[in-house]
# Entry
Amino acid sequence: MSDLMIEITQLSRFYDRKKVLDQINLEVKRGEVMGFLGPNGAGKTTTLRILAGLLAPNEGSVRIAGIDIMEQPVAARTKIGFLPESPPLYDEMTVREYLVYLAQLRQVPSQQVNQAVDRAMDRCGLTAVANRLLRNLSKGYRQRCGIAQAIVHSPEVVILDEPTVGLDPIQIREIRGLIRELGGDHSVILSTHILPEVQMTCNRVALIHNGRIVLQDSLEGLERHARRERGYRICWEHPPDEALLRGIAGIAEVSGDGTVWSVIPLASADPIPELVRQSVAHGWGLRELTPVTQSLEEIFVRLATQEN
# Structure
């Protein structure tokens, strides 16, 4: 049995003549929480709507738990739980009535419906409000109900589109904790434009920009990448000529204003011992040598704003 729960291959989608998704390739493994990150308008919601079977692609294929969503749409949808940005709630129903109704729609066997609903409510912290009308719930509890309806039929894949939008800090923290827990039993793809959300909840991340996947890696891989994107902040009492600095082996870039300098080394090079040696030999008076690494936020902003 394959560990791949979501397989997106060469996926493209057009609106009129505009290509909003451009040959996307993406995989999500069993039990993984994948952060799907990108600025507004990057193509996140379009991708998720195709994954959920609500929108057809113009090119490419999508497989959910090994099932092609275009060839066997009904079978594929039974494997999916979907929370759109605005939860599909019926305000005249109680929490329990709503989840029972959704469980029946998702073809949970009748003798298992109550158990499935109790499990989803317990998982999402809704047991205490089971008999309250949905219209009387706070925004945070409404989001919990949205997640509960997405998991009530125990799908293998859970798709969450901006699940913490509009919540207060306490509610956001609770929903993030719930998403982390879901990764143990489900494969989750979480769409967001908030980087801390990905860092706190996800195992892996994909960044989409202008309809293209520009980065796909584990969080550990991104952190290693951030450490490699290093440089140094340097100050001297008697700064050298910029041409002298550029001539030191292993230095790729030099910039500064005559007081504070930025030095970027070549990949896998360490010019610092030679730079310090020359500082002493020429009496430059080294005052500061501080390593500077790019944050994950800086890496994402750079990737999401560069030209394709």
Q: What stands out?
A: The longest helix spans residues 169-182.
